[in-house]
Amino acid sequence: MTEEALELLLHRDATLTEARLKDYYEEDEDIKVLLDSERYSLFAGGKRVRPVLALEFCKLFGGREEAALPFACGLEMIHTASLIHDDLPCMDNDDLRRGKPTNHKVFGETMALLAGDSLLIGAFEAVASNPEVTPEIAARAAAYLASCTGRYGMVGGQVMDLQGEHRKLTLDELLKLHSMKTGALINASCVLGALAAGVSPDSKAMQDTVTYAEKIGLAFQILDDLLDKIGNVEELGKNVGMDEAREKNTFLSFFSPDEAKEYIDRLTEEALVAIRPYPGSDALCSFTLWLSKRTK
Amino acid sequence: MTEEALELLLHRDATLTEARLKDYYEEDEDIKVLLDSERYSLFAGGKRVRPVLALEFCKLFGGREEAALPFACGLEMIHTASLIHDDLPCMDNDDLRRGKPTNHKVFGETMALLAGDSLLIGAFEAVASNPEVTPEIAARAAAYLASCTGRYGMVGGQVMDLQGEHRKLTLDELLKLHSMKTGALINASCVLGALAAGVSPDSKAMQDTVTYAEKIGLAFQILDDLLDKIGNVEELGKNVGMDEAREKNTFLSFFSPDEAKEYIDRLTEEALVAIRPYPGSDALCSFTLWLSKRTK
User: Fold this and answer.
1) CA A226 to CA A229: how far, in whole Å?
2) What is the pLDDT of residues B234-257, one digit of tens each?
3) Regarding the domain with residue range B3-290, which homologous superfamily does it belong to in the CATH classification?
4) How far apart are CA A206 and CA A40, in angstroms?
5) In Å, how far is A8's CA from the nearest CA of chain B?
6) Nearest CA distance, A150 vs chain B (angstrom)
7) pTM metric for this prediction
C-alpha cells in the first residue's frame, strides 16, 4: 500500500471512530463540565492506534467495519481514561499531553478523576451494547477488554511501573510490566476486532491475532521509551526525558538506541509474519510498518 | 419474616458474596499492594445492600442465586470503587469510612486511585463473564450497569453533587442528583437480579422491579442525609455533620427530620406495593422495612 493510501485509510478510520464517539454524548446542562472534560481529552487528536487495529483486524477477517466500530470507541475511551488518570498529580503529574495542557490542568483534579471514571465505564457500555454483533460476541468482548485492562492487565502494569520507580527492575520484570501496562490494551484492540468479524476464540486466526498483538505491543513500548529519550517535544506533544527524570525503568536501561531500533524491527517483522498469509493483509501490514517508524 | 430469620438471610447473602468476591483475586507479588488496597475496602464490612438486592430479586422471580452472584460481586466492586474515589482529597477528602481509615489514608492517593479504577473495571469483568447466565443476559447486564453508573448515572450524579456545593439546588435538581448518584446503582442492583432470573426487560415484572428500585433508592438517600445529621459516628463508622460542613444540598434543606421520616415511610410502602403481590416476596419485604429503619 502506498504512503498516501495508508494515510487516507488512517484518516478514514479516525474519522469514523470520532463520529461514532460523539454518539455516546447527549447534551445535559447539569453535567456539562463532565461532558466537556471527557471530550477535551477524547478529541485531543490522538493517533487512534487502537481503533485502527480493531477496525483493520475486523476487515482482515472479513468482518464489516460497523461491527467493530463500537469496540473501537470503547478501546479509545479506556485508553483516554488511562491517560487522564496517569497525568494526575498523584500519578505522573504531567502538564502536557498531545500538545495541550493535561485534563486536570484545564478542568481541575476532581473533574479529571471523574472524567476518567466515566470514560472507563463508558467503554464497557459501548462494548457490551454493540448492536452490530451477537450478544455472545458483545459479552465476550466486554469480558476480554476488562481482563486486559484491570488488575492483571493495564492497571496492574501501572502499579508495577510506579513500584519500579527508584528501583532497578530486571528485564523480565520490565517485559511483564509493559505486557500489562501497554501490551494488554493493544492485544484487546486486535482481539476485539477479530471477535467483531466472528473469529472464534480458539481458532488459528485468533492465535495469529494474539501473536501479532504481543509483538507490536512490545515494539510500541520500546519505541515509546526511545522517543522519550531522543524524540522531539513539539512532534510528540508531550515532554521528553521524563522517564529519566522520574527514574523510571525503560528498555534503554538494557539496550542502546541502535539496539532498540533493531529490536523494534525484529518484532515488527515477526508480527508481519503472523498476518501476512491472510488475503487482504496489505493495509494492516503497511500500518504495522508505519507504527514502527512513527516519530510521535 | 422474623428479625432473626432476616438477619440470618442477610448474613448468608453477605457471606456468599464475600466468598465469591475472593475468587476474582489471585495472588501476584508484583501487584500485591494493589490487591491489598482493593481488598482493604472491598472487605471492610459494608452492609452489602446491593448484593442482597440482586440476590433477593433473582430469587423473587424464581432464579437461582448462583446466577445472580457474579452480578452481586460486580455491583459491590463498583460501589466500593465509588467510595474509594469519593473519599480522595480532591473529592470529599474523608479520613474515616466504615469505622476504618479511608483507603488513601492507608495506601496513599496513587494506590487508592488505581484500586478504584481496578474495581470499576473488575465489576464489568465479573458481570460480562457471568458463567451462570446466557451471553445475552450477561451483555445486557453489563450494558445496563454501565448506563446506570457512567456519565448519565452515578458519576454524573457525583458531578452534580460537587457542582451543587455552596449553591442552593432546587428540590427537582436534588431529586435528579440523587436518582443518578445513589438511585441508579440501586436500580441496577434490582434489575440485574431480575435479569439473572431471566425476567424480560419489557415485562410487568421488570417494571415493578424498577418502580420498587426508584422508591427505595430515594428513601435510602433521604435516610443517609438524615443519619448524617442525627446519626451516631460510632454506629455509622464515618464522620457525621459533613454535609453541613461542606455546604452540600441535602433533603433536610427541604424537610424537617420528622417530615423526612414520614417521607421515607411513604416511599417504603410504595416500594412494598410493587413487590408484595409476588409469591415469595416475604424476605424482600422484610429487608425493605429493615433498610428504612437502619441506623448506619
Assistant:
1) 5
2) 776 777 777 777 778 889 989 999
3) Farnesyl Diphosphate Synthase (1.10.600.10)
4) 35
5) 33
6) 5
7) 0.96
